[in-house]
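Need tokens for this chain, all 186 residues.
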Amino acid sequence: MTVHTAKAISVLGAVAATFATGDALADGHGYGHGPDYVYARVVDVDPVVHYVTVDRPVQRCWNETVARPVGSVGVAGQTAAGGIIGATIGHILGHGDSGALTVVGAAAGAAIAHENAVRNGAVVETRADVVRRCEAVSHPITEKHIDGYRVTYVLDGRRYTTHTDYHPGDRIQVAVSARPVGHWGG
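Here are the structure tokens for all 186 residues:
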């Protein structure tokens, strides 16, 4: 073998070693390259939950009986008389020139006479009406919110736990890479 042939074989060997190392790095088993991805068996999935209390308005309705005045015995006459007396007093105080004082006097006299008649026992007739009433009532409800999942999986006979935003099913994708021990290269 000549020196040139030996050098050529040596160079070819170095190139072959470089390709072999490059393949190992491309597989993710060297450092400096991205990891490989494998699937691991999921053995446990626990939802991570928290509870929130929210107010939900609920409409509550009921029937209510309401007494409505429809007339009175002895009150109407006394109210009318009080209105006439009040109007007369207003007319006198206004010296006959002010219609406004006459009207104010009539209203005040009627109100005073009506109140006095009711206080002294005049009977006011009423009718019972049924009225439907509704109101919005605050109704607190506790809701369950899922913040993600605590996933336990097995890879190469060892158990690992991670947190995911989704339920992974029966397997989970895991990134793996091999780095030489004690090597801190980048």
